[in-house]
Amino acid sequence: MSKTSGKSSASQDVLEVVNPYDLSVIGSVPLVTWETVDKYLDAAQSLFKNRQDWLPSYRRIDILKKTALLMEERFEALAFQIADEGGKPLTDARVEVTRAIDGVGLCIKELSHLTGKEIPMDLTEAGAGRVAFTTREPIGPVVAVSAFNHPLNLIVHQVATAVAAGCPVLAKPADDTPLSCKAFVDILYEAGLPEDWCRMVVCDIPTAEKMVTDSRTAFFTFIGSAKVGWMLRSKLAPGTRFALEHGGVAPVIIEQSADIEKMIPSLLKGGFYHSGQVCVSVQRVFAPKKQARAIAEMLADGAGKLKVGNAIKEQTDCGPLIRPNEVKRVAEWIEEAKAGGAEIMGGGKKLGETTYAPTVLLNPSHEAKISTQEIFGPALCVYGYEDIDQAIAQSNALPYAFQASVFTNHLDIAIKSVRDLDAAAVMVNDHTAFRVDWMPFAGRRQSGYNVGGIGYTMHDMTQEKLAVIRL
């Protein structure tokens, strides 16, 4: 396990946090009980019901501006913490901090877009003599359950958005990576946010489920496994709105006109960024049958040059998987694919208890786990296809649909792929893991529900109210 519970000197239960590479303890956070969470929910509900004490927009803006400045001052410490607790290489951790700071700024900008509109009333005689307009107001207490793979930026997407929208928020980070969440919440307090408006909750699973499904929760935002997310959604209290962000088994289609040499670095980044622990990582690459082996060899050659190690080291390209059991699972899936006929072009082995070599497979069975489920590890598969319609059909064959991509120099193929691929976003001549924080980001079907992205999330955390005035 990558974490253990123990006792502090005050005999309070704590969650120990470890570096996922060497499993050394790097910190701890207190575990809270339902009794505490119940008080947090009561306080959040009270804040929401007392409309006269809602934080005005200018005050929220001031708090978020100060938050961004404090994050800038602690840039390297925040990046090191992401690498240390989450196993994301320092280079990428710095990118995450930059995105998180920019995300706070986006929250400020999006506040000016949370506007209403005039509704024409004299379209019929029945509505004549009236003026109507809409406004937007906070939806109520938000419960945010987050994931480990972007421990700071995802918290910004789920928590800073709630603060900006004027919603009290309870944030539950992943058990593996609570320190980044704690750092952000502490910065919010330092920037002037009263503590009852944002609480970090680190707790056991029954307490978390009780918090999520409580009737005081107005909006539930979840980033994590589909199994857990859809289960919690089925138990939500009547009236609770929600957003779910799960994973995909991201497909890439390579058309024969694509510039292969320029494409390879993009696929390597999209497949092995954070050791594949990203919900839109490149996983299935469909290439023309005559080119598939050569493409797999080029990818394997590039993957073999990536340095695997402790994420806090500057030279590391790929860090550990988040827990040793994940290394075992990835190894089992790859062995299953190999037994089923897949050719291991590179990698295909454990490097230690916490690391697995970046791996490229050629033509695994379409029924293998690695072809049908999100591996969330450093492995990508190359499949040969006869024609592009077959590649599109195989790309669309799973119950998951998130981001997809196509590499081509033909405009008609690009447009056809955008039209025919069942995905919320289709990248042309780019990898599937591309994202900027203001774009819509959504899983279709079993991959999620509702739309992420700073502005879209803030919209979901507010609700429209209509005023009709009879003159």
Verbal overview:
This protein is of the alpha/beta class. It has 2 domains: 3-246 and 447-470, Aldehyde Dehydrogenase, Chain A, domain 1, CATH 3.40.605.10; 251-437, Aldehyde Dehydrogenase, Chain A, domain 2 (3-Layer(aba) Sandwich). 39% of the residues lie in helices and 21% in strands. The protein has helices at residues 34-49, 57-73, 75-86, 90-111, 153-165, 178-190, 205-212, 226-234, 260-272, 289-304, 324-339, 369-372, 388-395, 411-420, 454-460; strands spanning 3-7, 13-18, 25-30, 118-119, 130-138, 142-145, 169-172, 198-200, 219-223, 241-245, 251-254, 284-288, 343-346, 359-362, 379-385, 400-401, 403-407, 425-428, 444-445, 448-449, 462-470. The strands form 5 sheets. The chain has a 7-stranded mixed sheet, with helices on both faces. It is globular. The model is unreliable at 1-11 (pLDDT under 50).
- Name given to the CATH architecture of the largest domain: 3-Layer(aba) Sandwich
Class by alpha and beta content:
alpha/beta
Overall mean pLDDT: 94
CATH homologous superfamily placement of the largest domain: Aldehyde Dehydrogenase, Chain A, domain 1
How many independent structural domains?
2
Would you state the CATH class of the largest domain?
A: Alpha Beta
Termini separation comes to 67 Å
Query: Rough shape?
Result: globular
Question: Helix tally?
Answer: 15
Strand arrangement across the biggest beta sheet? 13-14-15-12-11-17-18
Radius of gyration: 24 Å
> Strand share of the residues?
15-25%
Low-confidence parts, pLDDT < 50 over ≥5 residues?
1-11
The CATH topology of the largest domain is Aldehyde Dehydrogenase, Chain A, domain 1
